Amino acid sequence: MNRSIKVVPFFVLASIFAASCPARAKMIIFQCGTSFTVDLTNNTVNDQPALINPTAIDWQLKPGPTDDTGVVDYHIDRTTAILTEKFTYHLPNGSTQSDDPTTYRCTVDSANSGHSGAIRSLRRRGQAEGAAQ
Hints:
11-stranded antiparallel β-sheet; 2 helices
């Protein structure tokens, strides 16, 4: 019985400590002429749903009901730090028309550490931190 009395306070303290520590989202900010904030925890880019893997980030911007009928597809190659942007227009006759893709060179900032640099150095730093943990 003496042992169970010591165990209960430990679990209570552990629960309080865990609840008091806010979850930290892992964020990457891509500067590609304009800024894109990638939330690796929630799989979003500027609060839009995204497909994120170690080598690429893909997402779409769709128009609201009163906007034009264009859709913008974005792709960031995480190994080269190249953003590709492609517009697709849905025409009144039901067909679609796409512009040639436009590419941009990006730089990367980590919102968590304040460090900036090329994407390759960010990936190396992230891999080294993961190995250390």
